[in-house]
Description:
Blueprint: H1 3-8, H2 11-19, H3 25-37, E1 45-48, H4 50-65, E2 76-80, H5 107-114, E3 118-123, H6 162-169, E4 175-179, H7 186-192, E5 195-198, E6 219-223, H8 226-236, E7 266-270, H9 280-295, E8 299-303, H10 311-326, H11 347-358, H12 361-374, H13 379-400, E9 406-410, H14 427-431, H15 438-443, E10 447-454, E11 460-467, H16 472-486
Parallel strand pairs: 2-3, 2-4, 7-8, 7-9
Antiparallel strand pairs: 1-3, 4-6, 5-6, 5-10, 9-11, 10-11
Helix pairs in contact: 3-4, 6-7, 8-16, 10-12, 10-13
Amino acid sequence: MNKVKLTELGIKDSRDLLNKREISAAELTNAYIQNIQESTKLNAFIEKTFDIALMQASRADKLIGAKSQKSLCGIPLGIKDLFCCKNVKTQAASAILDNFIPPYESTVTQKLWDEQAVMLGKLNMDEFAMGSSNETSAYGPAINPWKLNDSDDPLTPGGSSGGSSAAVAANLCAAATGTDTGGSIRQPASFTGTVGLKPTYGRCSRWGIIAFASSFDQAGPITKNVTDSAIMLKAMSGFDPKDSTSAKIEVPDYEQQLEKDINGLRIGLAKEYSLEKVDSEAKRKWENAILLLKNMGAEIIDISLPHTEFALPTYYVLAPAEASSNLARYDGVRYGHRATLDTNDSILELYEKTRSEGFGTEVKRRILIGTYVLSSGYYDAYYKRAQKVRSLIKNDFDEVFKKVDLILTPTTPTSAFPLGSKGTQDPVEMYMNDIFTVPTNLAGLPAISLPVGLDELGLPLGVQLIGDNWQEPLILNTAFNLENALAFESKPKNWWA
Length: 497
């Protein structure tokens, strides 16, 4: 099998070939390494760990030969730069963590290595996961493998997991890890024609993942198809005593539950998820997804989530507040970047200079917002009130899930936009990209984005399925059925090689 075809395979198909000994893990890994070496224009990988990958691949081949393989044996993965990997540079795409090398492994990545996966390297992202376009990265933006029909303008791969989505879409890895705080897995997946899954809050351990907003952050996979998302989620999930928010709930075999029919499934359409903010082609693709679900026997039910309109302002009070607290630890004293001081500078000046030099503009903006809403005199007016609205949003979902099994929404208002075209003057314009994804983070609910077709510009669009807590099996099964019905097979042209 030639190199191009080999790297186009997903996890399941690669695993089948590996287990049949028709290909070797070393052969598969080398094919991906070659793709990565030819893809510098995409700027998806910011730290390459090829030596580690080849050692892991060699071990995988021995394990397969001894019939001791596990679910991800020999599968080459990319890891978002937010996940700490022992003895591998991890910076959260921020200058303030310049050359930081963790002495420990995140729980999620350790689970992947325990399943015998192969680590190709660390992937680009928005700084500290704060962004929707990958433009806040200290390494420069990752580039979307897709292009407009009649333009060479580079497009955003989405954010914050932009490197992850770009790498999967461009066949630079079989799958990748991401994190989702306000849509940072699902929006990039929608922009790149990949599948992005945000699990229920507490399903995957947050230990060893550099924190942005601790009550929102959740790890999840970006993959080439729904089946691969099921395989990855199984490997990434499970209780972790090192994470106080980790749930002690059994992890099902998601892959084994994918082929059930959805006849009689109740799917809700929320009137507040306004399609007025969605372009015409996105609306048509959305309506087609509804029709396909109806044809498979699903019942479509109109629902209301009355507090949805307050989701974005609530999120952009609470998430920066948590960020301002989490990022207070970066002071230049113990690790990462340290500013050069003048002779008479104090320790306070060390903090100020280090943080001024190390943090990017968007991170500084969110720290300032967060500090403001937590300050004396404003805490009750902003932070406390936002927490109350968050509870109302969660209650809306609780009531709706008494009537329906899943909720269907667009993933994003539009397809991918050119780099530099949004948020340069008005950051709120960029924040609006999260309008369909943020509510699930406020409520801690699981959701998946899968590609539904191409718009008139030749760019992929996604739809989102939202479920109740711990309903990942139902979400994945419905997404699997819809994926088969849609038969989306479009791929970006290989212009970067």
